[in-house]
Specification:
The complex is a heterodimer. Chain A is of the alpha/beta class. Chain A folds into two domains: about 1-95, 2-Layer Sandwich (Transcription Regulator spoIIAA); about 110-220, Pectate Lyase C-like (3 Solenoid), CATH 2.160.20. Chain A has helices at about 1-5, 25-40, 40-45, 60-70, 85-95; strands spanning about 10, 15-20, 50, 75-80, 115, 120-125, 135, 140-145, 150-155, 160-165, 165-170, 180-185, 190, 195, 210-215, 215-220. Chain A has a seven-stranded mixed sheet, with no helix packed on it. Chain A starts with a helix and ends in a 7-residue tail after the last strand. Chain B has a single domain (about 5-260), classed as Rossmann fold. Chain B has helices at about 15-30, 45-50, 60-65, 70-75, 100-110, 125-135, 145-160, 175-180, 190-195, 205-215, 225-240, 250-260, and strands at about 5-10, 35-40, 75, 85, 115-120, 140-145, 170-175, 200-205. An eight-stranded mixed sheet of chain B has the order 3-4-2-5-1-6-7-8, sandwiched between helices. The longest helix of chain B is centred in the middle third of the chain and has 16 residues, at about 145-160. Chain B starts with a strand and ends in a 6-residue tail after the last helix. The relative contact order of chain B is 0.18. Classes of the chains: A alpha/beta, B alpha/beta. The interface of A and B includes residues 85, 106 and 149 of A.
């Protein structure tokens, strides 16, 4: 049993398990993996597995069979990592991933969520580029720009210490007291609670501004100290 | 010798990635560097055409990766520059024939033998793009002064930042100073303002580029071409030389802005 165990190494990834198998005949590797899973059912229950087979060539029918055995045990195989192009090809044929992405800094979970006492805010210390979307259940503060094609949806306020050019929705769950502030407020889309403002044709004003709801409509005014909406 | 691997990317298609690769390769090789270009656009190859090497292809990158030939055999030597090589893409396969680790391995094999490896990335942000950026030490993002091209470039820069490829540079291609002056085109400064990455060069719009691409003789070899000069300057900057940005026409506005983004103070 000891010998079999050393064939397999398990590492936790962000949302799955990476299983590395040492070089051995496929039959042994397969048996070692399945016996590990049977021995630690609770641990593997519902897991997503990425299998690293090193340089070994794994055949289509072998992979298919393993995937079936795994799914019987309520474990899903989603990726096969291999240094062999043949095996990579095989895995791709079966619709499996062949590369695990590193955890990305853009992952929202990596942002520091700071406890501000009564309320929390998500602090984003970089420019949000096209294709990035942030959704948060409270306030969002960005130290950087929000570029066209980026999107922020916050249940609370949105504060951008930079140029706001993307799409923003503050008070997304209907909080009409939410505000949007930016050093340069020129969004592609601006919505607070249920009211979207027509922002087409707005020009740069060169001054920090704040958007808020007054008489059920979003209006924008130059930001003034002491004005808290 | 350990090569510097530079990937040329853009997100949007048709902004001039392939032209840029061919011209930078020619300019670097003419300066005495040993350069290998890799066409990363598998299935839609065209770097070979732009470099005028189409009819010399025997083996391609997929042949190397799948072991049907040695790396050396797939390296096509340029007609004029003896230190310039091309590894062509396969025309009859697709992007899935190559993996990011294949590209890294291939570049690692080349690194000890050459000064620069230039990789031509396909358009898009999918597999082919991931392949092309995997081995890169530096990624140059090419864009045109158009809203859609800049938007895509922004997306690419975002992905590069997420992949922690910190060494990025921007090339603004096909800038038309007359249109900029009439406010019919984004200025270089508008583009830089949004993307906020280091500017490596601005290439003016030049019909000669199209003619030379069709002939397979990159403009960087033409001493009279403005675009060719711009590419030669970018090549020098890649080698670490401090070359001032070209002046296009005699437009105060643009020049002021270029000076500003180059870090100088506005007069």
């Amino acid at each position: 049993m000891d010998e079999i165990d050393t064939l397999i190494q398990i590492k936790g990834l962000r949302d799955s398990l990476l299983v590395s198998i040492a070089e051995a005949p496929w039959e042994e590797q397969r048996a070692a993996l399945l016996s590990q899973i049977d021995a630690r059912q609770a641990f593997f229950q519902g897991a997503r597995l990425a299998l690293d087979v090193g340089t070994q060539i794994v055949k289509v029918n072998e992979l298919v069979e393993l995937r079936d055995r795994l799914s019987e045990r309520n474990v899903s195989l989603w990726a096969v990592i291999s240094e062999s192009p043949t095996t990579e090809n095989t895995a791709q044929l079966l619709g499996l991933a062949t590369r695990i992405s590193k955890p990305r800094p853009e992952d929202t979970r990596q942002f520091a969520v700071q406890d501000l006492g009564e309320e929390t805010a998500l602090f984003v210390n970089r420019t949000l580029r096209s294709g990035t979307r942030i959704e948060f259940e409270s306030h969002v503060v960005v130290l950087g720009d929000v570029n066209p094609g980026a999107e922020i949806v916050a249940e609370g306020n949105i504060i951008v210490w930079g140029r706001l050019r993307g799409a923003v929705h503050a008070g997304s769950k209907g909080n009409e007291r939410a505000v949007v502030c930016a050093l340069d407020l020129l969004p592609m889309r601006l919505q607070i609670a249920g009211d979207a403002m027509n922002v087409a044709g707005r020009k740069e004003t060169g001054t920090p501004e704040m958007a808020f709801i007054q008489d059920q409509r979003v209006i924008i005014e130059p930001w003034q100290p002491g004005n808290t909406g | 010798m350990t090569a510097h691997v530079i990937t040329i990317s853009s997100g949007k298609g048709g902004v001039g990635k392939t032209t840029t690769v061919a011209n930078l390769a020619v300019a670097l090789a003419a300066d005495g560097a040993k350069v290998v270009c890799i066409d990363g656009d598998i299935g839609l190859r065209n770097l070979d055409v732009v470099m005028g090497l189409e009819n010399r292809i025997v083996y391609d990158i997929v042949d190397v990766i799948e072991g049907r030939c040695k790396l050396r055999q797939a390296m096509i030597r340029d007609k004029h520059l003896t230190e310039l090589y091309l590894i062509p893409a396969a025309q009859t396969r697709d992007k899935n024939a190559v993996s990011p680790s294949d590209m890294t391995r291939l570049c690692n094999e080349l690194r000890p033998e050459v000064d620069f490896i230039l990789i031509d990335s396909p358009a898009g942000i999918e597999r082919g793009f991931r392949n092309a950026i995997a081995p890169a030490d530096r990624v140059l993002v090419v864009t045109n002064p158009e809203v859609s091209a800049v938007r895509d470039a922004d997306r690419v820069v975002g992905i590069l930042e997420a992949e922690e490829k910190r060494q990025t540079g921007l090339i603004i291609n096909r800038l038309n100073p007359v249109l900029v002056k009439q406010h019919d085109m984004l200025s270089a400064n508008d583009v830089l303002d949004l993307l906020g990455i280091q500017l490596v060069g601005i290439v003016p719009e030049d019909e000669g580029v199209i003619v030379s691409s069709n002939r397979g003789a990159p403009v960087a070899q033409d001493p009279k071409s403005r675009a060719g000069q711009a590419f030669r300057n970018i090549a020098k900057r890649i080698r670490g030389e401090d070359i001032p940005l070209m002046e296009f026409g005699r437009q105060d506005g643009l020049w002021d802005r270029i000076q500003k983004m180059a870090g100088g103070r506005k007069a």
